[in-house]
Amino acid sequence: MKQPFETMPTVLTADEIVGKMLRESDKVEVELPQRLPAIMKAKRRESSRVRACERVSAGYLESLVRSVPTIERLHPFYREILELQCGVANVRSALGRISRAARVIHEVAKDASRRIRSASTPQEAGKARRAFLGRAASIIRDARGDLELIAAMREKMKDLPAADPSVPTVVLAGYPGVGKSTILRSISRAKPEVRPYPFTTKELMIGHVLIGRRLIQVVDTPGILDRPMDEMNQTERLSITALGRLANLIAFIVDASEANGFSLESQQSLRSGISGAFPELKILTFLNKADAASKEQLDRATAIFGKSDLMAAAKGEGLEAFKKRVLDALGPLEGPEWRGEGI
Ligand SMILES: Nc1nc2c(ncn2[C@@H]2O[C@H](COP(=O)(O)OP(=O)(O)O)[C@@H](O)[C@H]2O)c(=O)[nH]1
Ligand SMILES: [Mg+2]
After folding, report:
1. Taking every annotated instance into account, which residue ranges of this chain make up the domain G (predicted)?
2. Please, where in the chain does CATH 1.20.120.1190 lie?
3. Ligand lying closest to the C-alpha of residue 260
């Protein structure tokens, strides 16, 4: 599964493009009949050089613009991150100026070709080609800042999670040690994919789960949805905003045995913080480690969280019910049917 920025090739700097263009100009060799008059040879040679340079300069800029995912078609999850990382308006205007630079290079090349055709001496043809190279180089250097912006954008966006926003997504939440990883590992078809999480040093774990013929994504966010919201810094809050664009549902996991060191009461207060951060999302609560919890703990958990599904993920108990409840809650969301590939 790919994310839209993953396939963007490295962005060349202005100097690299100019260097490539000048080398290309020197490389061009044209097969010319011996008997051709010197002026004709010069015209052919210089025209080929201009065309070759136009290809590696304007052609490169155009392919660069094409390699950037169309902003209008980006899923809000990725658009939100792009906005936070670089500013969508900045990216848009940089791309606009790069496209314009390519068009101007084409015009300058056309003009140079005309002058080469009407040249009356080889020197004149050479001069027209050199003038073109100079103009093209300065147009590319003027785009230096825009190229840098796109290069920086690629750096920031290329490692984003390959979460597929078209697949219904449930995000796991709950204090460390409650059993989130155990659940993800036990229900995923393959080993969960580990990706750096946007703007933070944290990692995001994505598992693909096939329930019947429905494919869903289960996302675990260590260090993000496992501690109180008021302890989050600005960056972490932003990543939560982006995460909210991807999530369709939250599964809040409780350690009913309190063995992880968090009382049921503090787990409840984490849950209300999370529910405040995602007011539009439904939260399902699961009481895990039912095998290790006392009757008193289970009763208290039920009093605090309301009647919730019990599970013992480490023993494989309650996993089928977990999947079924998640699927029911995702309900009418249309995820793609699994076609036996891509995961
Ligand atoms: N007794 C018991 N232990 C569990 C259960 N589920 C997970 N654990 C254990 O709890 C510890 C933390 O689990 P982990 O999945 O890493 O929690 P996470 O931090 O929420 O991802 C591990 O030692 C698990 O083996 C369970 O249902 N019962
Ligand atoms: Mg974990």
Report:
1. 169-259
2. 14-157
3. 1
